[in-house]
Amino acid sequence: MNAKIALPVVCAALALSLCPPARILAADDPVETAGVAVGVTAGNAVVIPAKIISVGTGLIAGALSFILTGGNAELTRQIWRDVTEGPYYVTPALARRAIGERPELEQRKARMGETTAAPVAANPAPVENSPAPPDFRQP
Predict the structure, then answer these.
(1) Which end of the chain is more exposed for a tag (fewer CB within 10 A), N or C?
(2) Is the residue at 124 inside a domain?
(3) Considering all CA atoms of the chain, what is the largest pairwise distance in Å, rounded to the nearest integer?
């Protein structure tokens, strides 16, 4: 590939990797949405350049293995298959799978769902035995 074409292609790939996918913005919790977006973006800033280097090195190593082993095509295919396998970028699903199940987050989401699901009365009745609110008015 020509150097004049390769640089813009690599820059465009890196720029697109820093943009979070739109489907992560559909999360219920804004804190979770922001956390996932930051994590995916930071992960892609590291993973995509590392994958490019890994694939490039693996392709060269595969070619050298073919030459040094006297034409062992199976070894070359295995090296190329190993280095060109995905994932090529971090997705929200991949990040969640990497950290494993987080029951405390699921419990928190369930509690938030319960509190938002209950209707709130416009003028709730006073609760018996509750202290009076403090009077902060100045005399």
Answers:
(1) C
(2) no
(3) 97
Averaged over 82-109, what is the pLDDT?
81
The single-letter code of the amino acid at 35 is G
Spatial separation of the C-alpha atoms in residues 102 and 117, rounded to whole Å: 23
Count of domains for the chain: 1
Residue 72: left if φ>0, alpha if ψ -120 to 50, beta else—which one? beta
Q: What's the CA gap between 52 and 28, in Å, rounded?
A: 34
**Structural domain contains residue 53:** yes
Residue 90 φ/ψ, nearest 5 degrees: -85, 130
Residues with Cβ within 8 Å of 49's Cβ and at least 6 positions away in sequence, in order, are: 14
| SS3 (DSSP) at 34 | helix
pLDDT digits (tens, 9 = 90+) for 12-48: 665 555 555 555 445 567 887 888 888 899 999 999 9
**Residue type, position 29, single letter:** D
**Which long-range contacts (C-beta less than 8 Å, at least 24 apart) are formed by 25-34?**
28/109, 28/112, 29/109, 29/112, 32/105
**pLDDT attached to residue 5:** 67
